Structure formats: C-alpha cells, structure tokens
UniProtKB/TrEMBL annotation:
The TFIID basal transcription factor complex plays a major role in the initiation of RNA polymerase II (Pol II)-dependent transcription. TFIID recognizes and binds promoters with or without a TATA box via its subunit TBP, a TATA-box-binding protein, and promotes assembly of the pre-initiation complex (PIC). The TFIID complex consists of TBP and TBP-associated factors (TAFs), including TAF1, TAF2, TAF3, TAF4, TAF5, TAF6, TAF7, TAF8, TAF9, TAF10, TAF11, TAF12 and TAF13. TAF2 forms a promoter DNA binding subcomplex of TFIID, together with TAF7 and TAF1. Residues 514-632 form the Transcription initiation factor TFIID subunit 2 Ig-like domain. This is Transcription initiation factor TFIID subunit 2. Pfam families: TAF2_3rd, TPR_TAF2_C. The lineage of its organism: Eukaryota, Metazoa, Chordata, Craniata, Vertebrata. GO terms for molecular function: chromatin binding; RNA polymerase II general transcription initiation factor activity; transcription cis-regulatory region binding. GO terms for cellular component: transcription factor TFIID complex; transcription factor TFTC complex. Keywords: Nucleus, Transcription, Transcription regulation. Its main location: nucleus. It is found in: Nucleus. Component of the TFIID basal transcription factor complex, composed of TATA-box-binding protein TBP, and a number of TBP-associated factors (TAFs), including TAF1, TAF2, TAF3, TAF4, TAF5, TAF6, TAF7, TAF8, TAF9, TAF10, TAF11, TAF12 and TAF13. Interacts with TAF2C1. Component of the TFTC-HAT complex. Residues 634-992 form the Transcription initiation factor TFIID subunit 2 TPR repeats domain. GO terms for biological process: G2/M transition of mitotic cell cycle; mRNA transcription by RNA polymerase II; positive regulation of transcription initiation by RNA polymerase II; RNA polymerase II preinitiation complex assembly.
Amino acid sequence: MPPTGSDPARMNRKKGDKGFESPRPKSVVVSIFSGFVELTIFPTVANLNRIKLNSKQCRIYRVRINDLEAAFIYNDPTLEVCHSESKQRNLNYFSNAYAAAVSAVDPDAGNGELCIKVPSELWKHVDELKVLKIHINFSLDQPKGGLHFVVPSVEGSMAERGAHVFSCGYQNSTRFWFPCVDSYSELCTWKLEFTVDAAMVAVSNGDLVETVYTHDMRKKTFHYMLTIPTSASNISLAIGPFEILVDPYMHEVTHFCLPQLLPLLKHTTSYLHEVFEFYEEILTCRYPYSCFKTVFIDEAYVEVAAYASMSIFSTNLLHSAMIIDETPLTRRCLAQSLAQQFFGCFISRMSWSDEWVLKGISGYIYGLWMKKTFGVNEYRHWIKEELDKIVAYELKTGGVLLHPIFGGGKEKDNPASHLHFSIKHPHTLSWEYYTMFQCKAHLVMRLIENRISMEFMLQVFNKLLSLASTASSQKFQSHMWSQMLVSTSGFLKSISNVSGKDIQPLIKQWVDQSGVVKFYGSFAFNRKRNVLELEIKQDYTSPGTQKYVGPLKVTVQELDGSFNHTLQIEENSLKHDIPCHSKSRRNKKKKIPLMNGEEVDMDLSAMDADSPLLWIRIDPDMAVLRRADSEQADFMWQYQLRYERDVVAQQEAIAALERFPTPASRLALTDVLEQEQCFYRVRMAACFCLAKIANSMVSTWTGPPAMKSLFTRMFCCKTCPNIVKTNNFMSFQSYFLQKTMPVAMALLRDVHNLCPKEVLTFILDLIKYNDNRKNKFSDNYYRAEMIDALANSVTPAVSVNNEVRTLDNLNPDVRLILEEITRFLNMEKLLPSYRHTITVSCLRAIRVLQKNGHVPSDPSLFRSYAEYGHFVDIRIAALEAVVDYTKVDRSYEELQWLLNMIQNDPVPYVRHKILNMLTKNPPFTKSMESPLCNEALVDQLWKLMNSGTSHDWRLRCGAVDLYFTLFGLSRPSCLPLPELGLVLNLKEKKAVLNPTIIPEAIAGNQEAAVNPSSHAQLAGFQNPFSSSQEEEEIDMDTVHDSQAFISHHLNMLERPSTPGLSKYRPANSRSALTPQHSAGCDGTPTTKPQWNMELPRKGTGKEQPPLEMSVHPAAAAPLSVFGKEPASSRHGEHHHHHHREHKKRKKKHKHKHRHKHKRDGRERGRAPLAFPSPAGGRSARSPPLSD
C-alpha cells in the first residue's frame, strides 16, 4: 500500500465481530501496517479468566478488556520447532515436534499464540455471562507472510508504480496479519475499516458502506460491513491503485485489476454471470452474499483464493479475445472460485476432519458446470485425469485419508503412519498431498451421486444452503449459527434423510480409510457354453491399495450389441461367467449396434472366428477409485478405439495400442486422426501413440514419415505441399491438432535413432512459412509448440575423439535449430508474446541441447532469466533448467544458489515452486551416494524447515518434503556419529541417552527417543528450592497421569520461547542451558518476572489456588533436563557418584511406571502452558492445566 504515516486502523466487532483496523506501510521499502482489533466476546461459561487468540508476527502494544489494561503473554512455538542447539536431525523427530507445536496453538483446540488474562475486576462480570470487549493495538513490521507487498522498482509515486498489497496464505492464515480466532468454525459478523493513501482502493469482504477522506484529503478510510457470520480465516484484503469495473450483467458484482489492464479485465470477466446463473439454478438457491468482488493481483500466492464475498486471482489469468488456450483455463478458475463461495466461504467447516465435505461439494458442482460448459467428453476426460492422478499418488505414497479420526495418539492409532508428515492439521500437510486430497474429495462426491442419484444430491446441497441462510439472518445466537458449519456426520445425516439410502459402506470404504483398488482382468471365451469366462484379480497388498468388495460393472460389446453386466466382487471369487447374447457369425453382413444406439458397419475380418466378442470394459463409469488393467487382443483394442463412443474408452485403447506396433494399429490410429467427429484430446493422444508405434516398426515402416502426409493434406497448400496455409484458427479442434502433430512427428526416429532429415526440414518450413496476418487469433502458443517440436527432434551428440563443442563444429542440423531458437529469443525481446510462451519454450529447448551434448552445459543463461523481475513463467522455466543442471552436473554451487533463492526470493510462489521442483527432480536421493550430500547441507535444510519458514506453512511443508526426498526419515547418512552417549545433568540429577545416537531402527518410534529415562525425568522434575527427602521421593501417582503433563514435557523440549529470548541467552548458549548458579531457577534470569499470570485449571472456578506462572520470556528455555542437548561432559565426570546414589533412592519408583509412560502418546491434548516453571516455585505436584 502507499507509504504514509501509520495511523491506526479500526475494527469493531459485534459478537465476536473480529473488528479490525487497518494498516499502512511507510516509506518506499518499509511496509508497516498498524491497526487495532476490537472483539466482542459473549462468555458461555463462568470462570473464563484467560482468553487465547491467534496472532503471528504482529507486535502487540497493549490489550484492554472493557477499558481495563490486561496482561498477556505471547508464545509461538512454531517459530522454531526444535531448539537450535538440538543435534537431532531425523525427520520423524521433526514431524512429531512440528505437529505438537501446531497443536499447541490450534484454535480448534482452544489454543493460541496470544494468551490474555482477564483482569480480576471483571471476574464477577464474566460469571454473570456479560459481554467482554477486547481491544488490541498491534502493528506489523515488514511482514514475511500473510500479507504480500508488491512494489515495482520503477519511477513515480506508489500509485503510479502500481504498488499493491493483498492477504494470502494457505488454509487459516489470517493470524499473520491481525490477532483473531483463526478457526473456520468460529463465526462472527465484521466491521472492517482501512485507512489508505487517497490514490489507493481498499477491497475487503462485505458491503462498502462509505468512504471517508481525512481533513487534508491525502488519505481515505474504507468502511466495510459483513453482516453474514464469517470466520476470520475467510477475511481478506487487497489494497492498490485498482481500476474498477462494475459487471454489466450483474451490478452487484465488481471487478478490480491493476492499472492499464481494464480491456483485458472486461473480456476475461464477461462470462462470469453465466457461472452465477448455472450455480443458482442447480442449487435452487440465491448466491448467499449481497455482493461479489474479483481482484486480479500480481505475484499471487495461488491462482485462485476464495474468501467471503470476494476472490483474489492472479493477474496472469487475464487475457484478450485473441488468446485461445488461456480462455478455458481462466473460465475454470472463475467457476472454481464461485463454487467455493457457496461451499467453503458461506458454509464453513466444523473441524479439519470435515474439510473433505466442502472441498468435495465445491469440486463436484464445479464438475457439473464443466459438463454443461465444455460438454460430456471434456468432463469425462477430466474425471479420468483426476482419477489417474489420485491413483498414481496413492500407490506412490501409501494413501490419502479424507476423514482422519484420531484415537488416543498411540503410534499404532496414527492413521497415516506411512507418511513423513502429520495429517492432523492442514498446516503440517505436504502441498501435493493437499492437492490430491481435494481431487479425491470431489471424486468421492461423484461416487455418492452414483449411489443416490444427482437429483437427491442437489436436494442435499439445497437443504444445507437453505438451513445456513436461515441461520445467517438470525441475530447472534451461537446455537443457530452452527447451521452454517458442515460436519461429516451432519452431511451424511442429510443424505440419509433426503434419499433414504444407506451410504455407510461407501463412506467406510473411501472416506474413513485410504487407498485405491487395483484390478487386473483377463478372459477366455467358452464356445461350447457360449459364455465369457472373466477373471478379475485384485492386488490389495501393495502400499496405497485396499480390498474392494461390492458391485462392479462390466460392459461387453458383442456382435448383437452392447450389454452391461453387474458382477458382485466377493472376498475370494475371481472367475465370473457372463452369458453371451450373440453367436459368432462370419458371413452375414449386418450392422452392429453400439452403446449409444448408433448402428455401424465394421470390417470383422480381424476378429476371432469363434467368438462374438468385440471388446470388454471393466468399470466403464469409473464408479470405483481404481486402476483397471485388462488383457485383450490387439484387434479388440483397435475396434474399441474406432467404434466405442466414450472418450475414456478411446484413451484406454490408445494407451494399450502402444504395446501392439502392427500395421493394423497404425491404420486404426490414422483413421482416428482423420475423423472430424472424434474428440480433439483423443486425436492429440493418437498423434503421440502413432509416433511410438512408428519408432517400434522403423524397419518395416513404408511410405512417408507418420502423420506427414496427413498434416500436408489438412493444413498445407494443395499446389505447394511444403508450404503451410495462412493460419486460420476458427476451428479450435483443428487448431489443437495442427499444434500437436509436429510436436509428435519430431519424436520419430530412423534406424540410426536420429530424427529423419525430412521431418526436421518439414518443421523448419512450418516455422519459416508461418503467416498469422489474416488470423483473428494469436499464434503464440502455436509458435511455442513449433519450438518444442524442434527440441523433440534433438538426439544425443556423437562426439569424435572427445573434441570440444564449439559453434564451428556444430552438427549442421543442430546449428539450424540453434539459429531458430536464437532468432525467436531475440524477437521476443522486441515483440513479447502473451505470457512469454515462446521464451519459455526456447529456454527448455536450450536445456535439451545442453543435455544432449550439443552446446556446453552452463547454467548462467538460466540464472539470468530466473532473476526477480522477469515474468513468472520465464522464471519457473529457467529455474527448472537450473534444478536439472544441479542434478546432472552435481553442482554444489547451483544447489546453494537455489537454496539461497528459496530463502530470499520476493515471490512466495517462486520459492514454493523451487522446493517443489527440487523434490520432483532431486539432485540426489536417500538411497544413493552423492558428493552434494554433506553435513553443511543437512544443517542448512534443517534450519530452513525448523525456523526459516515459520511465516509460510506451505513453504515449510515443502522444505519437509525436500528433506524427506534427500535424506529419508532417519538421521541423514552423511552425518558423523555424535561423540557422547550418556548425558548426565547433575543439577537435575538425571541421566538421559543422547537422543542423537538413537539407532535408525527406533527412529520411527519417537517415544524411544525421548523416553529412555522418562520415569527418572519425571521424578526428578521437582522444585529446585526444596531439598527435603520426602519431596525428593515423589510417588509417581502424584504426578498426574495426565497425558498433557507428560506429552507436554516431551514436546516442550523443543519449543521456542517468546521471540526476543536471544537477548537473555549468553553467547555460548550451551552453558546457559546448564545454569551456573545453584539455588536460582533454571536458567531464568533471577530478576523478578515481568508478569505473573494466573492460570487456574479450566472448569474449577477461581476458588482453587491459581497456579502462578512466570512468563518471563526465558521461562520456557532452560529445560535442557530433557536431554535434547548433551550437557557439558565435564559436569558429568564430577558428580558421577552423587548421581549413582540418587539413582538408588529412586529405584523403588522406577518399575511401577515404566510401562505406563512408555506407552503414553505424545499425540493427546496438550496444554500449551502446562509447564510449572521452576521460577514459580511449584513442585511437580501442581495440577496440570489441561486436566
């Protein structure tokens, strides 16, 4: 936003109106955002004396409750997951600590980073359940996440430069920019006010009530009201010098874009009203908000982000009427964001485990929109694509669980023990897992629709929406508003009420457990009995699979027509006999009826004389999440490709024909390419299949290269067949084919495995004679594909006597390719294409030339294109080349350059993509030796995921994925073994195994890492001030068995304390952890604590003596006692004998509890502050807070 003085932003909230005052940055570079929040809280229980809110990176200046100053503590354990002194480097350990840190501030569990103490004067007020108003002043200084500032480095004022800021983040990330209850299940109404520079526009949720200028007219305040109860996580903000367009078809819809993009905005959004009409019609329900705003911004976090009554899009989705390829993609983005307005923003979720319902419904109705807009073929192709993606992912990783239910938190109850991250919280999930999770959710909704019918399905959605809209108009009554939250059980209940069908088995199969089904079908025809003997095997032992029992549809196309059979897949039955309807007949010429009622003539000479079967399909409707491989003869696949009218069947046939390189397959594929009525994506796939078949048949292939004569006939001049006609892309079908064919042809190879000379000449001619002057559409994607074709034609260089490649001794063909690429790159600098598609293709082609040894391998060109300032697609393409170079050339320097970019690049999306690319194409993996794998790299990545990415959940999870790919779950093999085995901490009288030496075998079971002496630890965790014998011999039963107490201590070890701890810690922080002074509190400065905060146990009322909790920032630091840190060995030698005596004394208590504590999970509820700090002078008997 514009740099100006930082005046407060104001926000009032009614009932939990999370009111919020808005921000402003200062000076050119410094972004400061200051404001205040006012929450109105209705206590629902008496004795509410602490209030926990979420807040990250905000500086809190003061907190007042009903105008009384309130004490508060701020502690964010996710800033540094494991303490930096820890020498632990195994990922299992990190994932457990990270899940614990996220739980400790999880608003759904009533936790938060900011803990506010209700002043004692108000306790009586609270007991009468009267309203509390909390007023918090805060500022954000140079925020690293949550708000993204885009300030182009050009001349002019902020508005002239197009500087803007917008909120972004993954899942509930609103806490990054103002204190709130950052949970999807806490609804409230909102008043939002933003004071910004006069040249700027602030766009936020709800209706713009008024805009007020300040006296000097240099600033203005935007007042927004959102009367529909909404969670803080669905609140967003965008501020910039936006151009504003009111939708001509629907005046309540407003579009915003950056300066000078208005014409593109008009074209891009001209279609949106049709999407509104479609959703309102199928849901028989009005759009729930009074307005809708779309904002297109630069450097977007994701392409589409939906918030209550507004969506934030990437500005790269804007396009003009000349662009073909981007149009369907952008329309899909708009439709997706609108589906999420209904399910996701208006209807929110009860808890994280209900997320699948919202993602499933919004994805499902988006699919219905797609079916209506792009047709059934496109829809079925999309379903097949999504199904293939989820099947491949689950088989690779071991499964995606839609509805995780967490038991006691013992290791065996962990529903996703096959993963390297916890699935308890959205913030610990790998981004790829979350993408697949959304994909699976909408496929499962489609399975439910198959079971109960679409009509009932839409009735269920309508019921959810109408209940929610009735609830939303009520004045605050929390029990009413809960109708606006959807839960798995509530959703299933309305399905059974509306449809009367029991879908429990389906839910159990696909929602409550992970895994997909793997079918393998083969058949024989029994002529005597005229039956088809079908054998269907399942593989349910490999990871990511499950056993399927239930109905399975099989479609058999016979000579007399197409017949559906429903088989019952039982526990053990494999063979199924299916009666055939037609006798085999050779001679009678008769038309053959197809599935869709069409009758066609077929040439039956290829088929088996005895059998009437033409082809067989298993589960044609994709009614099971499965991979189905079936064995058929090549002629059956050819018939299926030619005559089956379902695009999914055609694509399966094309994939199968790659295994049958025969003239008949060649003919079938060529026929499909020539068929105008055939779906364009099937024809595109046929091009690539034909190229593969031609390469397998290279010695017997006759005639011109595959597809060349076809292309010439379709797209070239009749008189001069090597000159292409002037472009006319009016027919999109033929446009896509014209674009794809040359790319596939370039994959052809001759007997010497080189690209045939005539193919290369042909592609160069296409480029040379390309003429777009009379075309109303842009040809930038077409030209980019021609460069891809040139790249595909490159084959590895044959080096003679190791001569060095120079431009003089280049292979003549390669020289022609290189000249074209250079010419294109230079042209792009003068006349850039839309989204720089041509530069992107050129960069990829140069990398192909490098990899094949034609030009010297050198990353410097790519590094210059990857710098900040280039268009994002160019940067990603260049970075992909650098990642590949790092892998092929094992370059440590490039790897460091990439890691540096991950930490410092200004664009969050680019940082995320680099991690993603490194994970997909890693420089080395855990199973191989590599010179790149060394201790410095381990430390660097550990630091990145441990504390370097706390401002962006997605980035942190990406770093975890990369660490897993490179080093696996256990301690990286390149690390030296730690020196010291047993750590004695004398002052606390404990011995702890140095957890870094845990053998790999146990690494999976984290308890073992922290528990070797947990019985001793707990007994020894006692008040340093008391030395009486009885205190020392604590009976373990007085240490409450509360999970919280134990797991808390196990998890707190690695929890960072308040920001700003560093100033208390001496430079040699190691010695600070084994304090030098004896009687004082462990490592806490002996000065008086700044605040004492009383934290009575919940539910017991204030009468109980409160537990004093000193919240000196360093209080949480010193627990070296739990042995994450080898204490200095000198200490150890000195007092060894004391220690032994002490141990004898304790022996009695050891055996009693050993087993109990071993099993105690770390996963159960955890009290974030349940930590009797020794400074408070309490013994281990203090009741744990979460009891």
